[in-house]
Every structure is written in C-alpha cells, then in structure tokens.
Specification:
Elements (H helix, E strand, L loop, with lengths): L1 H16 L5 E5 L4 E8 L1 H6 L1 H13 L4 H10 L4 E6 L4 H16 L7 E5 L21 E5 L5 E6 L6 H10 L1
Parallel strand pairs: 3-4
Antiparallel strand pairs: 1-2, 2-4, 3-5, 5-6
Length: 170
C-alpha cells in the first residue's frame, strides 16, 4: 500500500511540475486568444495571429552578412531566452527577424527558450522570476553558466544583429 501511495505522489508531483507547451488561453487584458508560458518555435509559428506576419517577415529579412560573419566567430554555447507576446506588434516584427539571424548563425535551437506572456507581460509558474520583463519582445543572452550577458528590449538600437554583436563584444 505504501509503495502504491508513493508512486501516486510521484506521478502527481510530475504532473504538477510538467508544464503544457504552447498553452492557449483567452487573455482578458487583450480580449483575445494568446499563447502563454513555454512555447516551441513551431507552436509560435503556427499560432494564427502570429503566423500571418511571421512567414513574410522571416522570408523578407536579410541580416547584414558582415555582421553575421563576425557574430559566427563569437557565438559559442550561449543560451537565449525570448520573451514575447503573440498579441504584440513589436514581437510580430522582431521575433521572425531574430530567428532569421539565429538560423543564419546555425544557433542550436535547444539553446533557445521561448516564453509567451499575457497582456500584462506575465507568465505562469514563475517562468519570469528575476527577469524584470517590462516590454516585449525581450531577447536575453546568457553565457553557459547562466550569467546574463545582455538583452535587447522591444526593438534594437541599431539592428538586431548589430545589437547582438555589441553584446557579444562586451
């Protein structure tokens, strides 16, 4: 009996901590359906409101080749956290451009974490704890030890690839 009870507790604990990827909710702040919490790239790209801009903006963006060549020399095993809103105009523009850059850099997708927020820029389950997210999208670069190297918030100062290069050169 004790073994069955212990196994049941373990299964329940796993289910509580397991998070639904590409979770859809109706956001009261924006009065529309959105993605919330951890997302996959595919889930984000296929979400109807986000997809309508993602595909053409990704296809039409050409990152600066010289900056990409310089970035390729600097990029190692860093991790990137992308915090965005499926409802946000800046996210709809900058996230596809950012992924085009990552693809040009052959950046490993396993090193990219994507978090969708609601209209109050919140996510569930403490996903944003300690990140100080005030605007979206926010692209945060971390070294392999998890120390923040820098971030791009809402939009770039120069270009996304130019701002990435400035962060890597610090």
């Amino acid at each position: 009996m004790k073994i069955i009870f212990s196994i049941t507790l373990i299964v329940l604990a796993m289910n509580v901590s397991a998070q639904e990827v590409n979770k859809k909710i109706h956001d009261q702040a924006k009065n529309k359906d959105i993605l919330i919490n951890t997302c996959s790239r595919e889930g984000m790209m296929t979400f109807p409101e986000f997809k309508e801009m993602y595909d053409p903006l990704y296809a039409s963006y050409t990152p600066d080749p010289a900056t990409i060549a310089e970035l390729k020399k600097l990029v190692k095993k860093e991790k990137i956290k992308i915090v965005f809103g499926t409802w946000c105009g800046d996210s709809k523009v900058n996230v596809p451009h950012f992924f085009k850059i990552l693809d040009d850099l052959d950046f490993k997708e396993k090193n990219v974490e994507i978090i969708a927020v609601d209209g109050h820029k919140k996510a569930e389950d403490g996903l944003l704890n300690g990140l100080d997210i005030t605007r979206v999208p926010t692209f945060i670069l971390f070294d392999k030890q998890g120390k923040e190297l820098g971030r791009i918030t809402e939009g770039p100062n120069t270009t996304l690839e130019g701002d990435l290069l400035a962060i890597y050169k610090k």
